[in-house]
Amino acid sequence: xxxxxxxxxxxxxxxxxxxxxxxxxxxxxxxxxxxxxxxxxxxxxxxxxxxxxxxxxxxxxxxxxxxx
Length: 68
Known about the structure:
Blueprint: E1 19-27, E2 34-43, E3 49-56
Antiparallel strand pairs: 1-2, 2-3
């Protein structure tokens, strides 16, 4: 697993910056599987939203929801 560091332009609350992280997903119309996953964050100090990454999941594997 690759480690990622988040830094906000507001410089947080000193030595540490705190973020809320959210994972969202889209299902196929028939709920038969996952179509896409997205990861985003919000700086606790200033409320700025940040976009991380999204993935298209062509296989629709539902067990990926256990990792979210």
